[in-house]
Design a protein that fits this description.
Elements: H1 3-8, H2 16-54, E1 66-68, H3 76-81, E2 97-102, E3 105-115, E4 118-126
Antiparallel strand pairs: 1-2, 2-3, 3-4
Length: about 130
């Protein structure tokens, strides 16, 4: 082989445009999923706030709370690969038990149930004041 030919022959030929395109596609799909999740969460929060503003208690003061069923952690790659009807087990849940949170603190635990056709929670135990 001549010196000129040897200098023009690549040692390793990689099409970085293809790799970059694949990475861009993965990031775009992940961004879309995160935006949908944020939009769904925002809509749920707004609906709950609107509903709670319509209701009044005996004292006129309203308290918002949230029910936490469980949680898990997955990588962005795993999230990106999720499809409709995929199942992701919750690693932080206990046999139907839920946590009732308000003001950034866990206030009680309970069990989910259906009451008069609506999802509800039965409070089973109040958190003591030392619970963080």
């Amino acid at each position: 082989m001549k010196d000129a030919e040897r200098r023009q022959t690549p040692i390793l030929a990689v099409d970085f445009r293809s790799v970059e395109s694949q990475i861009d596609e993965i990031c775009a799909r992940a961004d879309e999923k995160l935006l949908r999740l944020l939009e769904d969460a925002t809509n749920a929060i707004n609906a709950a706030d609107a509903d709670s503003q319509r209701k009044t208690s005996a004292t006129g003061a309203l308290v918002s709370f949230e029910i936490r069923l469980g949680s898990t952690r997955i990588s962005l790659k795993e999230l990106n690969e999720k499809k409709i009807d995929d199942i992701e087990p919750l690693i932080d849940s206990q046999k139907g038990q839920v946590q009732i949170w308000s003001g950034g603190k866990m206030r009680a635990t309970g069990v989910l149930l259906v009451d008069d056709g609506k999802l509800a929670v039965r409070i089973e135990k109040l958190a003591d004041e030392t619970t963080p």
